[in-house]
Structures
1.
Amino acid sequence: MRAGLSANGLWKFRRGDRGSRLARCDCTLYGTDALLAVDAARQLGFAGTAKHTLTLEELRTVVTEGWHPIVFVDLSPIDGVEDVHTLVVVAVSQYEVNVLDPLNGERLIPLQAFSTAWALRHNLAIIVER
């Protein structure tokens, strides 16, 4: 799959790839099922991909080791919107979490708001690995 963040922060797919790749993980306008996303990554050659339930300290360690987990959050503590969303975690500091957001690009989220939003989705994270 050829995907990446565009200048405005939206995910872009190479022409011709989008439909088949999104269908593999059952992506819709309403989101993606975590287990189907893991299965899709494995089908694309990322056999070590797995779903995890992590503590905040474990998330910090994983990111420090160079991984960028995909986390599932409830947006209500972050933006006041009743919706489930995914973010890619880039860094975790004492006061904030730096994430790549497919809708809003790179952003900093206060640690307390992130922790609450992530806990509402059971601290779910996907780590993509070959």
Note: The longest strand covers residues 84-92.
2.
Amino acid sequence: MIEKEHLKMLLVNVIAVVLGGCSSSLNQLENETLLPEIDVVQVKEYSEEALKLAQEAKIDVQMINTKLADIDQRLVVLSEEVSSVSLAKIEELENRLSLLIEAFKDLHEQMAAIEVLPQIRVGKKKKTAVFSPSEAGALVTSSEYDHYQSALRTYDKHTYDKAREMFVDLLKKYPKGEYRDKAQYWIGECYYAKGDYANAIASFNKVFEYKRSSKADDAQLKLGLSYLRMGKNGMAADEFKRLINRYPGSEYVPRAEKYLSEINL
């Protein structure tokens, strides 16, 4: 009886040990099974997060590149606009300057005419120079002068084709007139304003056919500018140098020197 009880207890202990060992093995196996699964989940989470960050970074880079491309395009457009506006403004200022210089020179010539051609009235005891507004005006105005001024006003309104026709008509009507060289010069200006630099050059060169023309240095400057606009820098430089050498007292010498320095850069 005692042996049976002892055997029974021994069997229980063995079963307990076996079960305990199985349980321990099961727990160990379960732990060994779970550990890799936890690592995979973490790696997956990290991978997804990394992929998300990479995608966001890629989107950010694409957005930045798009914005950079847009800014670059805007800069190109802006540069072209500024360049175009600047050039147009320069052309406009040059035209206005030419008109102002023309008005100044014309006024100077009129004053000189009044000074050297007075109407002398002789009194009983002394000579007295007497001028009336009408008499002074008669010295400096004429139908040719009126025609010339009308053509200049037309030019000033930017109707260059019409102005050119008026200057050409002046040359036909007054082949020996006092404003022939000036009319010829402004024919060149009309072509220049239209961007027809080849005809402008031909017209400016004709100004030199008139001896002692007051527009010679003007024409010389515009020859250089015409070649410059055509991209013929070498020929432009030659014309600017010719201006400096032939007309050292001209008000255009500083401008010619400036253009030369820019060409030589």
Note: The first helix runs from residue 2 to 116.
3.
Amino acid sequence: MASSHICASTGTSRPRPEVVLGVWHRPCRHIRIAAAARQRKEPEGWGRELDTFARAFGGAFLFGIPLLYTQETWNIGTYLDAGQLLLFLGLAFVVVFALSHMSGFRLAPDRHRFSVDLEETVQALAVGAVGGLVVMVSLARLGPDDPPEQWARLVALQTVPLSIGAALGNAFLAEGGSRVSGDDPPPAAAWKALGADVLATAFGAFFVCFNIAPTEEIQLLASEMSPLHLVALIGLSLVVGYAIVFEAEFLGIGRRRAQTGPFQHPVTETVLSYCVALMVAAGLLFLLGRVEPGDPIRDVVAQTIVLGLPATIGGAAGRLVA
């Protein structure tokens, strides 16, 4: 027969907590939510593949975004010859293969097989190429008037940092990867969780944007982007922010899925965090003198949206480690 104890808050007799599968089950709502989050059914088939590539793209953008906003990188891609680009890609292949062997973006039980490492290396390079292509088109660095060789050179060059970032994502941030995260803490109350998310987003956005906001690239990009490019960049920012936090299986995913409240739903949290990232981006642009109160509203909005992508990525990283 199960023993009982007296609850200090109500004075009533309740069953003692029992240990089931190593988890203490108490009549507390947050413990039940956290246990349910940990016992979530793992995705299979296409669902697992989507999680895998979300993790790869998340790592690519987390670690590679600074070089995507560097004018020198854009210029180098216009004059490097084919041999030099192949050398860069060859070096990237070696680095990504080594990282994949240690801890790539797939959580595979047969991780150290040569065929698995080779397959993941090729996939990481493909992730880098697709990510670089999407960002370069969204930032108006590539367009229909550019010759095919310029497309190939610029995308090939952006593939290098993004593919390395894809391989690094699991090594540093994935649950079940090489870094041991332990059990997630119990979810906080809704308003407390909201405040923590806002602060973590703001700090992460500030940390990433402070290195990018003072540069000339933001004004240059904003002046050359059409309204369609800006809308595409908003969509890309929202998708990347959502994927990093909720689909990439990075640290804290169980805790985040267990949070409750109107602003803890993945969609509402993503939109709210994007708004916070935009406010941080706009504030930095004003503080650093890149925009002024008398500037045309179109220029201010365009620069804020351009800086909003790295701000969103930084904010997502901040919420991961908060």
Note: The mean pLDDT is 78.
